[in-house]
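Closing statement on the NAP sub-project.
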Amino acid sequence: MNVLVTGGTGTLGREVVIQLRQAGHRARILSRNPRGHVDTVQGDLATGAGLQKAVGGMDAIIHAASATTDVLRGNAVDVKGTRRLLNVAREAGVKHIVFVSIVGIDRVNYTYYKTKLAAEAIVREGKVSWSILRATQFHSFMEFTLGLFSKLPGLATVPLEWQFQPVDARDVARRLVEVVSQEPGGRLPDFGGPEVRDFKSIAESWLKAHRLNKRLVNLWLPFKFSRQVADGLLLCPDQKSGTITFEQYLDLKYGAK
Ligand SMILES: NC(=O)c1ccc[n+]([C@@H]2O[C@H](COP(=O)([O-])OP(=O)(O)OC[C@H]3O[C@@H](n4cnc5c(N)ncnc54)[C@H](OP(=O)(O)O)[C@@H]3O)[C@@H](O)[C@H]2O)c1
């Protein structure tokens, strides 16, 4: 099967490309800057450049490109870019688009999630037969966020009550390869990580893995979304679909401590 992977250079997309190729499929990458990658088309969802070339000859698309700051750019990438992609994909006779989304975007009041919902709505219009897979936050996103909360010397100021169900991008990629090989399935069951944990315990594991001797203190944020995340609205506890825990991810990346 010939599959275009948008976002094929990103955290999730890279794993998708590896696993598609291991499974014997062709994986073509759409990227603004494809240097260092093979089987690529240079293009930009925000302008439409390269999209026609990218979809040509493809049976399916795994659409994993996204810009978290899209709203600042008039939703050019996630929303308008998804529409552009679907228009050219339909013309080219692409049979299936698999859209990657996020668990709980309809329950948590956060600008980026509104963008994702708007992009989902465009996929659901059905220009191309579709599947939508919502996943929980990736392990690498836990690290990214904790890095931001740990800038002060000696301190990690973290919203300790936030709840996450972090998932490994390799697990999500495995599911996406399965999904793209099947008939379009519409909105699929959510894909969550193997454990629900509060940010306190996630931060403790992360500080330990990095041998950081920082004092962990609670950061209270006066935003609705902060309460919603603490209330577990980003979770799908009935769908513990991933296999790799945050501890295992840290061990694999930094070695057992
Ligand atoms: N991160 C999480 O915790 C998480 C959790 C659940 C779901 N998701 C979803 O999973 C998907 C992948 O997330 P990620 O964290 O792996 O993303 P990422 O690492 O931030 O990568 C973003 C990708 O989007 C591409 N991209 C950005 N702007 C583009 C544009 N204008 N034209 C074409 N490509 C563009 C980038 O490609 P180039 O820079 O090469 O152009 C890059 O490959 C997203 O849909 C995200 O919403 C993420």
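The domain at 2-254 is CATH 3.40.50.720 (Rossmann fold). With this model delivered, the sub-project is considered complete and its resources will be redirected to Aim 3.
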